Amino acid sequence: MIHSLTDTILLNNGVKIPGFGLGVFQVSNEDTIFSVQKAIEAGYISIDTAQIYGNEEGVGEGIRRGLAATGKKREDLFITTKIWNHQLDYDQTITAFNESLLKLGLDYVDLYLTHWPGNNEYLTSWKAMEELYIAGKIKAIGVSNFEIHHLETLLETAKVTPVLNQVELHPRMAQKEMRSFLQEKGIAIEAWSPLMQGQLLQEPTILTLAEKYHKSAAQIILRWHVQNEIIVIPKSIKEERIASNADLFDFELSTEDLALIDQLDNGTRVGPHPDTFFFE
Q1: Per residue in 163-179, pLDDT tens?
Q2: b/e burial code for range 63-86 (CB count within 10 A of at least 16 → b)
Q3: 115 annotated to a ligand binding site
Q4: Which tens digits make up the pLDDT trace of 129-155?
Q5: Which of 69, 162, 186, 258 could bond 12 through an S-S bridge, CB–CB 3.0 to 4.6 Å?
Q6: How far apart are CA 215 and CA 194, in angstroms?
Q7: Number of neighbours of residue 274 by Cβ within 10 angstroms
Q8: How confident is the model at residue 120, as a pLDDT?
Q9: Active-site amino acid positions
Q10: What is the reported pTM?
């Protein structure tokens, strides 16, 4: 379990990923610049973006400003991006990666993910990602929104085992079967939409615990992730919330209170199902 913003989790290839970071889904380039800079100034070292978000340039500029403001170096940060569904053949994957690298203004990324399974097209894309990884342009490769059966298929032929699966995960969609499978395979799990796009912030159980611990509802939910050893990347464009989201390391939920939150799990998604999502 992590105990600070800079604490890391060891991935299966020996690379260390911060257990807590900033996501920038549905954030404009301008707001992304601000959010990333302020996150780095607040002590964040992990930033998660994607090709489809359209804000990789904003992430890159935010990184440059954040590094200038703090004196940190590029190697102090952990940057993740993802390839979208329309570029999953071999050559397109290489092209998409190089385009992302150019937009970010970086020489390498720390983690590159296949964003969705894409009707099994990921098998071809994965071969290109493996080559980029072996060439040292990516520190680690993984997947996002993969179901267990997608991972089982990939593992049959993969030369490089994914380090991580990034999935929708929150107290209403706790992904217990997936977490068990990934633990068995030595693959880390990372949560997108950890606050269920804000839908859990008025949940009575969460509000009761927030009052008990003198914390916000968001902090209670994010602490639940941390204590379950789930890597988490909440999004915010507000400086005070970026700082507040990370204020998780001065309290601990009891075993009984963790169990109360666990009882909220009913399999409710806010995003599409990987097996039925329109992949184009």
Answers
A1: 999 999 999 999 999 99
A2: bbbbbeeeebeeeebbbbbbbbbe
A3: yes
A4: 999 999 999 999 999 999 999 999 999
A5: 186
A6: 17
A7: 18
A8: 75
A9: 53
A10: 0.96
